[in-house]
Amino acid sequence: MIRYGNRLTLSEVDIRRWTRITGFEPTAIATVADLEDYVRECKRYYAEPSDDSAFLNWLMDVELERYGGRPAGNRPVQLAAVSPDHARTDTERELLWNIALDGDPVRRVELARQLEDRKGSDA
Question: Is the pTM of this model over 0.70?
């Protein structure tokens, strides 16, 4: 990423990372505001009440903050009870965790605890 003021140019690595996380290639990103709009649209696509959706929203916010943007949602993601048959495979989920936390097991345990706390408070 190259950033000068509000101008932003994503590198090939950045584009691959965002595409892997969101499933959509970021195109026409020239400013931080463009990146925030891109994340907002991705969050709309993944708006279902599930653990996976909550995780992806959190991951997009973490990535957006790395680029100097503001989280794209104005309210926290609400978790709801979902069936045990999740849409993602265990391998896909593991890959997303590793992308988000750079393989840091301490951060992973902390995030898992926070997600469990949210589930308990929503019940």
Answer: no
